[in-house]
Amino acid sequence: GGRKNEESEIGLERYGEQQKDLGQRQERNKKQQQETEMKVKQLTPERREVFSYFVPISGMEAQIYDLLEGVAHHLQFEKDSVSGNFIVEGIKGSGKTVLITDIIKVLQKELKRPNGKIGRIDANALNQKDLHALTEKVSGGCLIIESAGKISRDTAVKLSQCMDLDRSGTLYILEDTKQGIQKALDRDSSFSSKFTEKISIPNFSIDELAEFGRAYANDLNYDIDDMGILALYKRINHIQKLDHVTTLTEVKEIVDEAIDNAEKGALKKVLGILTSTRYNDDNYVILREKDFE
Fold it and tell me: How far out from the chain centre does Cα 85 lie?
């Protein structure tokens, strides 16, 4: 009987090894799947360049990726306006307008659509408009509704009817704070059901704001040196009070001011002593600590 026991022990061992192997394989597959999901949500280098202000912000790349996929799928396969429309929400000064402009740019470049006129209107003004005439004007293009929370119930219902009749694939976009968007969507369920994609711009951390400041400076052919970055942090910290969330607009203003200071400083120097240290290897003008003070 000893041999039987040995065999069954070997069998158990083998079974244990198989189970362990299976467990490891499942673990590996799960990891690969997660990695693919993460990979899938990465923007291509061309797209990253367009969204350079937003990519460093936590969770934004995946949100932009999802929105572009959803809207692009709609624009490619459908010629109506009952879905594929989108929402961008965030606090004042969080870059909503820039983000929407970037999204339209990418869609036009990749899909050649929207290919009609692009209209931008405040919801208050929209409430006074002849909606049929307005939607005709932007046919096949884009209608961006700012401060969307101000839309009246009547306008939401009528606009929804216009969207039902739209066969040119016009893209409708709502822009407001989170509360404003909620108000707009609560006006009419048929209207709100047509906005199938959404991006929520989060409040930025101080690191993300500084990273944006650097990306913005690079866009204008400037670079910020290490001490300059510290000075930028100091300035951001200075604005960031308990009851106030610092916005991209404010960081942009700080960087614009530093650029002005750098340019003034350069003019003050006699042309003969303009040294090469003004530029870095990429030929960007360097912004230094004193420019931020």
Answer: 16
